[in-house]
Design goal:
The chain is mainly α. Helix content is 93%, strand content 0%. It has one domain.
Length: 41
């Protein structure tokens, strides 16, 4: 594998990881909001 191929592959994997982290933090955020709403309600 050439350096360019490795760099491209790493970029793709990194993007996948970022998306997972973003989705995870978003779902946590929504859970927290939901919990707050249910406590108030």
């Amino acid at each position: 594998m050439s350096a360019a191929t490795v760099a491209c592959y790493n970029k793709v994997e990194f993007t996948k990881l970022l998306k997972k982290v973003a989705l995870y933090s978003l779902s946590l955020h929504l859970k927290c909001k939901g919990a707050l709403h249910s406590e108030q309600g």
